[in-house]
Hints:
Keywords: Germination, Lipoprotein, Membrane, Palmitate, Signal. Belongs to the GerABKC lipoprotein family. Residues 228-395 form the Spore germination GerAC-like C-terminal domain. This is Ger(X)C family spore germination protein. The chain is an alpha/beta fold. The chain has two domains: 26-241, no CATH class; 246-393, GMP Synthetase, Chain A, domain 3, CATH 3.30.300.210. The protein contains 13 helices and 14 strands. The chain has helices at 2-16, 43-47, 102-108, 129-134, 137-145, 162-166, 176-182, 199-208, 243-252, 319-347, 355-362, 364-370, 374-377, and strands at 30-31, 34-39, 62-69, 92-99, 117-118, 124-128, 154-158, 212-219, 224-233, 236-241, 259-264, 272-289, 292-308, 382-393. The strands form four sheets. A five-stranded mixed beta sheet has the order 4-3-2-6-7, with helices on both faces. Strands 11-12-13-14 form a four-stranded mixed beta sheet, sandwiched between helices. Helix 11 packs across helix 12. It is globular and about 80 Å long. Residues 73-87 have low confidence and may be disordered.
Amino acid sequence: MKKIILIFLSCFTAIFLSGCWDYMEIQRRGYVLGLGIDTSEQKDIQKNKIEAMQTEESVPKYIYTMQVPIIAKATIKPGVQGGSGGNGSKKVWNLRVAGNSFFEANREYSTRIDYPPFYEHLKVIVINEGVARGGIYAPLDFIFRDPEMRRRTKVFVTPGEAYNILDITPNIEDYPSMYLRSLPNNARKNSRILHKTDIGSISEAFHSGKDFMLPKVEANKTEIKDAGAAVFKKDKMVGWIDEIQTNYAKWVSNTVLGGTLTVESPDDPKSQVSLEIKSLKTDVKPVVNGEQITFDISTKGIFHIAEINHPHDKRAEEQDFIREVERIAEKKAEKQMREVIEYVQGEYGADVFFFHKAMQRYAPDTWDKVEKDWDNIFPKVKTNIKVNIKIEQVGLIK
Length: 398
């Protein structure tokens, strides 16, 4: 009897374990690794009848670029346009479509590619500055809604065409999207790189009506540079900050993972001392005095001396020299942090430093009163900045 039951159970379970109901060969999926969004003002797209689509309403607003990896050489067909890997063989297929919405353009891809587009492995979205200044919520709406999209997808802004970012030929990577996706990982080495810039964090900012930043990227034929940031007020880009300003904006907002700080040498103003950030923490607390709001910003950091570029400095190991370097570094950091706050306040009025969160946490009653008028209050608030730097290691110099 037991043998009969075991045989029955084996046959019964085999029915449900025989395979996946939506099984598809990997070569038959159109894995989308990257998505670029440009304005429809490019003249060349209008000349290409394949890339231009007929729209049911109005004229095309955007040009979407979908990057699909070519999994096997057998799938390469004559006339396929796309980037190529370092060995010269074609690795990606960049399809462009002009349309009013991504959903519309996505379905139009089906007229040109015989694989269904698959977005669960989407790594990056690159947005052109023109699109960003007009507002990015509309072109990203479908991405926020579709359950196939991953909230960890990284988003970047470029002053040039998004297509050009995806069309590079990386020297040491097969796919431009994978190369770009990995660059924010270097934020532990360089704090000029923004790293918290995925779809999930942008969605949260949109729904809470808060300001934010996205990383700036530029490219040539073989490489991409990820440094600097685009400043957004609500969903519209209002301007850029350069890579040094981005560095100290991260100091203010307590998002530094690592990086460097270079200061003048106490012994020779023409020489520099390079410090490596080992840890950095910033606390921001509001001080409410009647109707006046100020912010106390306290930053504490532990650094190592990485390099002194004037040789034979006999004082490099002396405590007096180290204390002098610490004081110089503190003054420089305080100055740079104050300057980037005042620049963003004056030029853009965008609270990308999360001062509103400090208000919500430490002064909730006051925040309830000023929340609706915060856009007018933030550009006028004053800050008191105090930086404390401690150098713990000077390196092996003997």
